[in-house]
Amino acid sequence: MSPENTKRIDEVSRYYRPAAKLELIGAILFWINASLSLSILFSEILPSLLQSLIPSVFIASVLIQFVVSQINRFYLIPKAERMRREQMLSDAFGAPLSHDKTSLYYNNAYSPSVKRLGANTMENSLFSSEVAAKMLVSKRLLVGIYLVVWVLVFSSREIDLDVIIWITQIVFSGEIIVQWLNLEVLRFRQERTYEKLHAHFLHEIGGDSQRAIATILDSFVAYEAAKSSASYLLSTKVFNELNPELTKKWEQVRSDLKMNF
User: 89: helix, coil or strand?
Assistant: First the structure.
């Protein structure tokens, strides 16, 4: 979240890489399992060796996908988010909570304080909501296509019932509908957090007042809770594409709100 002509250091990003790799492996396994489950429906046309082999491979693949998804959801992603949270608090209060270094990850001139935490949270929520919105463009299109196909298949009397059940299972699985809904909710909640903090800084609520502290802490908790409940990794590729544009937008917001340049 910094200008391209300035060197930006973010050692915390390394914690997200294993989670991203496992997420990709899980997605690949999902479609492998989908293909294997479909082949089981038409196993009678396959050689006898494959008929006996496919169910075993399918069971093993499903178990591997389950393990991969659980490791990601309950260990790798929470660990990465915890390290990011510690780094964010370290930057906000000038009190190192970890050995990971960051430089120019946040862009505001506030000294260590609750107000700086609010500015950091506001910047993060802006970037997160915009990246999620960009990701949702293709996600909504794909989900729409899947749903149209499902409706057409479901309304057809010529399609075998087993195939309809298979397509229904695929479309309404955690890899398609649930992921889309998680991303929609994440974008909405991060956007709401940004808007709340924007209103806070717009009206210049005193940084040392009880109300200001409560508002910022509430927004910080809401931001972290949204990430935790979604357990969804935002695309690094989309972030890098939008970073220059969003950085300029954030600089304009800071200027408009007179956020201590």
Answer: helix
